[in-house]
Structure formats: C-alpha cells, structure tokens
Amino acid sequence: MPTLYSFKQKDVLCSALGKYVKRASRESIKARGRFTIALSGGSLPSQLAQGIVEDESIEWDKWFVFFADERAVPLNDHDSNYRLAEDALFSKVPIPRDQIFAIDQNFLNDTQELADVYEKDLVRVFAAKETVKIPAFDCMLLGVGPDGHTCSLFPNHELLRENIAWVSPIEDSPKPPPRRITLTLTVVTHAHNIAFVAAGQSKQDILVKVLETPDEGLPASLVNQMGGDRVTWFVDDEASKLTVFPKKEFKL
C-alpha cells in the first residue's frame, strides 16, 4: 500500500521530498556505492532542488541521473525536461556531467532510435558487468497529470503493455509535444523507491481517482499497485483536500 504525506505549505513539501531523496541517496551509496535516480519534468526538478541544493553532505559525485521521460526536442528547448533540470538543479550542484544522461540530439527525427540509444545508456550503467533483465533505480521521481498519466505513459495506451523494452518511443502523446520517449511501466515500478509529487487544486480530482479507485487502470494507479509500499506520495493539503485515503505524519 502506498504512503501518503500531505503538507500545509509547498515549501514544507519540498523540504520533506529533499529529506526523502537524501536518505535514499545515502542508503544507496552505502549499499551499492552509487545513487541512480530518474527525474520527471514539470515543476518537479525545482521542487527537488528547493529541498537539496544547499545540503553539503550529499555525495553528488556518486549520483547517476536519468530522465523518466523526455520530449524529442533539442536540449535547450523550453519543452525539454533536461533544460528544466539543468536550470533548476544541475547548474547548482556538482554532479559529474558524464553521469547526467540526456537524450542524444542526433536522433530527434527518429523516436525509435532515440529510445534505443537511451536504453543503451541504461545498459551501460545497470548491466555493464552482468545480465540484468530490468534496471532497478534507487529512486524514481514522478508527477501525475490530470488524466492520471505519469512519465509519458498515458491511459489506455498500448505502451502500458510493453514488458520487454526499458525505453519506448511514443509518437502520439495526447499532451504536446506528441513525440517523446519514456521509461516503460516495468522499469518505473521496479525502482527501490518511487515518489509522486502533486500540489495544488488542479490535482484534487485525480488524486481521488488514483488513490481511491485503482481499478480504473490509470497509469499512476498501476504504479501504486505494482510498486506497493515502495511508493510514496508527497502532496500539499490543497491537492489532498478531497481524498479520504489515509495520510501519515512525515517522520525521517
């Protein structure tokens, strides 16, 4: 069962998210010598940055950063998730640049090749020395759309049934821009720690659906079901106003 934390103020939410990620980083580095994290776009990079950029105890040199999904646009484009993360986070912390994995701009016109090349980056990090069927990220940070999508996994889309590829292309995203790549549901739900972040009134209705009516099969609901107690929701009180899903007190 997922854990739901709700906070009165967004800055308190960001602080709690930062503590959650810092703990995951610390534990992962102790256990495996590195920290692998997948980021979504939107407001999430800035929310994460607000909670961690000032912390000098973080071992940034052991971070390996991927994107949960990305748009097939240049890295300096306003629609680029990389650009959002660069502006909010990467430019402010000393993560080695060769440990931040952006899409290869040489393949923007071919989303299948774009996905295949990105998957090779995952193979190099997760399966360089042994056979790995599914990469296990230490932390997966996700948002949720008003239709219940997460990453670029949309309701009723055929990509939800993909169980072989680690990274898949999508040409018909219902949310612009239409051409993207995304981690598959199998990879997303295999992470050691999975966190959703949702804030504001616009998230009220979808939180009720995702948390209280999981049989609808929305992508975010599927992550809840498949991830179980590895899934944590960080929301503000405005977003959680309508849900009766049990809230827990944040302690870390």
From TrEMBL:
Keywords per UniProt: Hydrolase
Domain of life: Eukaryota
Enzyme Commission code: 3.1.1.31
Catalytic activities: 6-phospho-D-glucono-1,5-lactone + H2O = 6-phospho-D-gluconate + H(+)
InterPro entries registered for this protein in UniProt: 6-phosphogluconolactonase_DevB, 6PGL, Glc/Gal-6P_isomerase, NagB/RpiA_transferase-like
Record pathway: Carbohydrate degradation; pentose phosphate pathway; D-ribulose 5-phosphate from D-glucose 6-phosphate (oxidative stage): step 2/3
UniProt-recorded Gene Ontology molecular function terms: 6-phosphogluconolactonase activity
Gene3D superfamilies: 3.40.50.1360
Protein's GO biological process: carbohydrate metabolic process; pentose-phosphate shunt
Domain Glucosamine/galactosamine-6-phosphate isomerase: 9-233
Annotated TM spans: none
Family, per entry: Belongs to the glucosamine/galactosamine-6-phosphate isomerase family. 6-phosphogluconolactonase subfamily.
Job of this protein: Hydrolysis of 6-phosphogluconolactone to 6-phosphogluconate.
Name recorded for this polypeptide: 6-phosphogluconolactonase
